Amino acid sequence: MKPLQASSGDLNADRRADYAEMLHASGDHAAAAELLLGALELAPQWTMGWYRLGEMQQAAGAPNLAAQAWAMSLKLDPADRQGAALNLQLMGKAPKTAALPSAFVETLFDHYAKSFDESLVDNLGYRLPEFLDQAIRTARPGRFGLVLDLGCGTGLMGQRLRPIVDRLEGYDISASMLKQARAKGVYDLLGKADLRDFAYADRKAELVTVADVFIYVGALDAVVETIAGMLSGDGLFAFSVEKLANEDAFDDFALLPSRRYAHSQAYVRRVLAANGFSVLSMETKTIRQDRREPVEGLVVVATLPSDAFNV
Hints:
The protein has 311 residues and is an alpha/beta fold. The protein has helices spanning 11-26, 29-42, 47-59, 63-76, 84-90, 102-112, 116-123, 128-139, 156-161, 175-184, 221-230, 265-274, and strands spanning 144-150, 165-172, 189-192, 205-210, 231-243, 253-255, 261-263, 278-290, 293-304. It folds into 2 domains: 11-95, Serine Threonine Protein Phosphatase 5, Tetratricopeptide repeat, CATH 1.25.40.10; 114-304, Rossmann fold (3-Layer(aba) Sandwich). The protein contains 12 helices and 9 strands.
């Protein structure tokens, strides 16, 4: 994938953009947007510039102009590595989507890989691997022959699983995250894969974990069906979702301003049942902090009975 240009490629445009960032940081968002628009007249193909212009226009209280800038960003980069379509969706100017763009997720985690553990664990109080580990051990004490850790990231879940696993395989969309996981030496195999079109034809796993990954996937039906096909009879599926706060809204899932998906408990149960799973545990936990506010999630362990369709 060709990297996004942090520079416009035009020295004069970059100078204007730098000054626009200074104005934006000082709180003069309208002047910043005007200056950055001038820079884009010199470098009209600069995707990141258009995306940043949208952020400045939004901060300046000009949502229609922000939407125009994000639409241009999306036109120049249809893969949408900046997530412009998500911003348009949150504004009601684009249709709802079933998942975040894969290129956006890959770009996001490639960027944050080196600082990911420190930012998430130390700064945001991330405890999900601990909670999932406890739920798995409670549901089924003992060892697992083969475990697939999907969306393994830097290996935080893998570090928890390693003491109870004979063979541990991790898969992630981000090559940079996999590099960090490889350095920890806890996986027997690491592979690059997109969870939404992941194909696995090896032996059946006794446990599949998906820790803090479904926040990037809204509609869970297809991916849960795929995971059911990876599991042996009586296999466990341990995962998390961010919990939809308003369960009375009758939404299965919703894209939040954080550009993460939250899911309703009823929807999670329905998708699991439709794919032959029985829920062993489903607990509400504070999984991290966001802007100093607790984020509630569901920590779930389900089993695929030996008489399910995929044995």
